[in-house]
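Annual report, structural modelling task.

Input specification for the adenosine-5'-diphosphate complex:
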Amino acid sequence: MASAVSVTDLRKTYTGGKGPTVEALKGVNLTVAEGDFFALLGPNGAGKTTIISVLTSLITKTSGTVEVFGTSIDTDPSLTKTHIGLVPQEFNFNIFEKVENIIVNQAGYYGIPRGQALKDAEPILKDLGLWEKRHTPSQQLSGGMKRRLMIARALIHHPKLLILDEPTAGVDVELRRSMWTFLRKMNEEGTTIILTTHYLEEAEQLARNVAIINKGQILVNEPMQGFLERHDNKKLEDIYLEVIGVGEAE
Ligand SMILES: Nc1ncnc2c1ncn2[C@@H]1O[C@H](COP(=O)(O)OP(=O)(O)O)[C@@H](O)[C@H]1O
Ligand SMILES: [Mg+2]
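The model returned the following structure:
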């Protein structure tokens, strides 16, 4: 099957500014198949957001090759960007803007005219339970609604690949479950999904393939089922802690 994402020997060193030089990615290799539901796991500071930021051309890589649906991010970043919908880790919409405008403005970045965007936004907002709030300034939304707005915004240009960077952080159980249902449906309908999360149960429930990164290096990259079986079907959380070496060094 074609690859949605193909990353080879990716390195990223943060330099400059007042801070120290940080070698965030130390030769990462990663393949995500088209149609996959892929979990990227790792502790804080492991390099997950850095990988995502390179994929989406938000930051430049130090070296390595990155292809999105067969196109290099070096040769055609605007094309690769149109394939990706990103739900960033932090809320980053204009809080004074109304829900509908946030989505329509985003569509504008992809050249989708306002009238078309309004039409396209309707089913997305309905699916995510935000339709009634479309004229509400985003600062008046609950935390869970803000999360869903981030997802709606990421979907307005119908990306083939949806990347969610800790979308359920601080989200209550009920909303988390409804988000799972939504993401499963998106995936069943053909959208490739990459998810980073701290909720390992979530990764276990949703993902077909899993990668674990620690200190800028990929430690595991295999089908979730096989990975669990290889570890005597222990809970993913326990295996994860073993893999990243927590409690072993002391
Ligand atoms: N803009 C930046 N400047 C300098 N260092 C950074 C920057 N962004 C991230 N880092 C560092 O890179 C490493 C990986 O960070 P990140 O990709 O955000 O990890 P994760 O998303 O897995 O928590 C960390 O050591 C982090 O402090
Ligand atoms: Mg992160």
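Residues 14, 19, 22, 24, 42, 44-50 surround adenosine-5'-diphosphate (ligand 1) (CB under 6 Å).
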